[in-house]
Design a protein that fits this description.
Elements lengths: L10 E10 L2 E10 L2 E6 L10 E3 L4 E4 L1 E6 L12 H10 L2 E6 L10 H11 L6 E7 L8 H4 L5 E7 L12 H8 L6 E4 L3 H9 L10 H4 L2 H18 L3 E3 L5 H10 L5 E5 L1 H5 L4 H6 L12 H13 L4 E2 L8 H4 L16 H11 L4 H16 L15 E5 L28 E7 L2 E5 L2 E2 L18
Helix pairs in contact: 4-7, 7-8
């Protein structure tokens, strides 16, 4: 079903530098009825269309964050859909896909419907929610993955925050054989994790985290996953890849579109052991941030396209929870608002280009998951865009961040630009460090599955 004009607004964004995977060009973007009508150097608009002056600004398509944990229901003391999506829209993220490890976990159509109802009128960005795979629901997932507002199916091969887990190959194969959409996978070997944590000495420091959840834990699981992908021919998306060895395996197996993958900014910017020595559990996540050898391999793979896209894995906890001694300290780093600022520092430092940022944050996640109408500033696409002021060159401040977490390892980082205006379907949704209007995010459409009615 076609989207209704009432879903969006009219806006002419003029005299900016429009960024796409193909290049950076001076010009304007015209949005009519919530959709892009024209992009180019000579684009104008009828007199009644509101105008937004983008002189001196970079104009990106709205970012898509395909992996966030906004903690609602059940864990709202950490984050909720309102606060998490406010952080998203402030960072230029106009679409997010939220993970199922809430309380209760999102494992049935009823729980998916509950999340969609909670987001209505409260979510600042467009959104979808993953269903969590279990041994009990595996045969139903092929039907349920087509429900409106469903981002697809998420598998935890290793335990992380929450109690969702598919540890054995037999159950994972059942999941992969039921359905057609790409399956998102947290790949760590649960059997090795159990052995490693059981052997951990009392009083161990968080600096041990990359050794506890070691390279072999990730690599063993990913080998198993790739074997099952070859057997079932089901498409998967490898989440938060963290090791040079997995990148080498990805290149060696060369499974094409059967396997796509993403990396978090944390694995690209931070490095062990320094991040643990400096930030303690604030730098703790699963799979872990590792040393510079892995960081540099991930950077190279992201730049050359072996890694498809970025997902923040925004995973907030309270300061009190993060202060617990390791390994009771929970894993996760808040990050949905800092994706774009961190990648702009990569452009400044020379290992990414602006065009790369548009590819990995906009067009690639839309392609990977089949998100309709998102990921590009082109006629017919949703009028989602973010204006970046490249002259913001000052230390990142905690008061700029909207997550309920109240901390970030990136506070104090010297910025190389900052998102200042976010537009969602032709309407200004965030400006001057505040939301500009009431939330009007809505469920995403996908190329597979029914259109909204």
């Amino acid at each position: 079903m076609a989207k209704q004009a009432s879903d969006g607004g009219d806006l002419l964004v003029h005299d900016g530098r429009v960024v796409s995977p193909e290049g950076v060009h001076s010009g304007a973007v015209l949005v009519l009825g919530g959709r892009v009508a024209a992009v180019g150097a000579d684009v104008g608009a009828p007199g009644e269309v509101p105008r937004l002056d983008a002189r001196g600004m970079l104009v990106f398509p709205g970012l898509i964050d395909p992996q966030v944990h906004f903690r609602e229901p059940g864990l709202e003391h950490k984050e909720d859909l309102a606060s998490g999506s406010l952080a998203a829209i402030a960072g230029g993220v106009t679409s997010f896909m939220e993970m199922p490890n809430t309380r209760p976990a999102t494992t049935t159509p009823e729980r998916l419907a509950d999340k969609l109802a909670r987001a209505a009128g409260r979510a600042h960005s467009d959104h979808a929610f993953f269903l969590g795979a279990t041994a009990e629901n595996a045969e139903h997932l092929g039907e349920w993955e087509r429900l409106a507002g469903c981002a697809g199916v998420k598998v935890f091969m290793g335990s992380s925050t929450g109690d969702l887990l598919v540890r054995d190959d037999a159950t994972l194969e059942r999941v992969l054989r039921c359905g057609e959409r790409r399956v998102a996978v947290h790949s760590e070997d649960e059997y090795r994790l159990q052995e490693r944590y059981a052997a951990l000495e009392p009083g161990a420091n968080v600096v041990r985290h990359p050794q506890v959840r070691d390279v072999e834990t990730a690599l063993r699981s990913t080998r198993r996953l790739f074997d099952l992908v070859e057997r079932t021919r089901r498409k998967v998306h490898l989440l938060h890849v963290s090791t040079a060895e997995e990148i080498a395996l990805l290149r060696e197996r060369d499974l094409g579109e059967l396997v796509t993958c993403e990396v978090t900014p944390n694995h690209l910017i931070l490095a062990a052991p320094e991040c643990y020595e400096r930030f303690g559990a604030w730098a703790q996540m699963n799979p872990p941030v590792r040393d510079v050898r892995h960081r540099d391999a991930l950077r190279e793979a992201l730049a050359d396209g072996a890694i498809d896209c970025i997902g923040s894995d925004h995973a907030p906890h309270t300061l009190a929870e993060k202060s617990e001694p390791y390994p009771r300290s929970p894993s996760g780093i808040p990050g949905v608002q800092t994706i774009l600022p961190l990648l702009l520092t990569a452009v400044r430092d020379g290992w990414l280009a602006l065009e790369d940022v548009a590819r990995i944050c906009c067009s690639a996640p839309a392609r990977v998951y089949g998100i309709a109408g998102k990921g590009a500033l082109a006629p017919g696409m949703d009028g989602d865009l973010v204006l970046v002021d490249p002259d913001v060159r000052e230390p990142l401040r905690l008061e700029w961040l909207h997550s309920r977490a109240g901390y970030s390892p990136y506070v104090g980082l010297q910025t190389a630009g900052w998102p200042v205006v976010t537009v969602l379907r032709g309407r200004i949704a965030y400006r001057d460090r505040t939301p500009a209007r009431s939330p009007h995010g809505r469920p995403l459409d996908f190329a597979t599955g029914p259109a909204r009615t």
